[in-house]
Amino acid sequence: MKAKAAEAEKPKRRYKIKASISDRTFDICNTIFLICLMIITLYPFANVLAVSLNNAQDSLKGGIYLWPRMWTLDNYEYVFKEATIFHAAYISVLRTIIGTVLTVFCSAMVAYTITRQDYVLRKFITMAFILTMYFNGGLIPTYLLIRDLGMIGSFQVYIWPGLIGVFNLIIIRSFIENLPDSILEAGRIDGAGDFVTFTRIVLPLTTPVLATVALFSGVFQWNSWFDVFLYNSSHIKLSTLQYELQKILQNSNTTSGQSSIEGMISGASGAQQNRITPLSVRATMTIVASVPIIMVYPFLQKYFVKGMMVGGVKG
To answer: Any idea of the CA torsion for 101, 303, 170, 147, to the nearest 10 degrees?
Structure first.
């Protein structure tokens, strides 16, 4: 009997050994793949950071990869000496904060409305919003509408046109539909109206998906520059950091851009003119524009993953 039991155990042991080898092989291959993916993802940013911290004239020789060859802070000194940069950064931060808060709140409010079973027009409004994802009036009609509304040359053009994103609306709606009906019914039994139910019950329970939408909206607002170009390009006080970066990138990629940047730097001393190049300014501006939004992501990462998993699947 013992011999038979030992023979029966042998296949199980062989299976466990094979399974163990297979699992280890998969873990090793997966780890190697993720490391390679991380390197490919981080290298461009690390390279731009190295160029921004390297001597501008030396960077023109090439060969800068992950580590500066000649360390200097002259590039950042020049960028932060520009008065327009600080004001543009202020406008970018202001539009990001205001736009994100209003977008999250209004999108959540509309999403809660169209999840109400007793709301007669909920299907019609949902379909109307979804249609806007596939069809729009086009650039010229949109510009004419913004002009007729009197928003050209004003800060509000950054907020109202993109106040409610349909994609964000669908995510929040899916999340709210997964909430237990008993919780909302308990609030109504206690005498809470729709607005109180929304602010006191729905909003606290939808924190993960709201953080996800806030991240989407914040990145969109921070990186936007085309609306500045269309509506506020002649109003320097409403220029954003990304638009200033775009102007430098555009100027540095053309022959006339070389003379434009040299003209921008002509106000500096002769020694500083020799230290600054379009390449170094471009790299420095990229880092300055990217770091603030990168610093926000770690605080929202846990909500981002949970909100995408729960809000994207209806139970």
So the answer is: 30
**303 and 309 Cβ atoms separated by less than 8 Å:** no
Single-letter amino acid, residue 206: T
Please report the pLDDT score of residue 314 as a whole number: 44
**3-state secondary structure (DSSP) of residue 244:** helix
CA proximity to 88, closest of 282, 241, 226, 296: 241
By three-state DSSP, how is residue 118 classified? coil
Count how many residues are written for the chain: 315
Q: Pick from 151, 168, 152: which is nearest to 106 by CA?
A: 168
- Helices and strands counted in the chain (H then E): 16, 0
The count of other CB atoms within 10 Å of the CB of residue 267 is 10
Rounded Cα distance, 249 and 251, in Å: 5
Name the more confident of 252 and 148: 148
**DSSP run (H or E) holding 273:** helix 270-275
Copy the structure tokens of residue 241. 């950091």
Distance CA(143)–CA(148), nearest Å, equals 9
Number of C-beta neighbours around residue 184 at 10 A: 20
- What is the rounded distance in angstroms from the CA atom of residue 54 to the CA atom of residue 50? 6
Residue 235, CA distances (Å) to 13, 64, 93, 95, 157 in order: 75, 38, 17, 15, 13
The pTM for the full model equals: 0.75
Name the residue type at position 187: G
How far, in Å, CA of 91 to CA of 224, rounded?
12
CA 51 – CA 286 distance, rounded (Å): 11
- Over residues 232-236, the mean pLDDT reads 89
Q: What gap in Å lies between CA 96 and CA 218, rounded to an integer?
A: 6
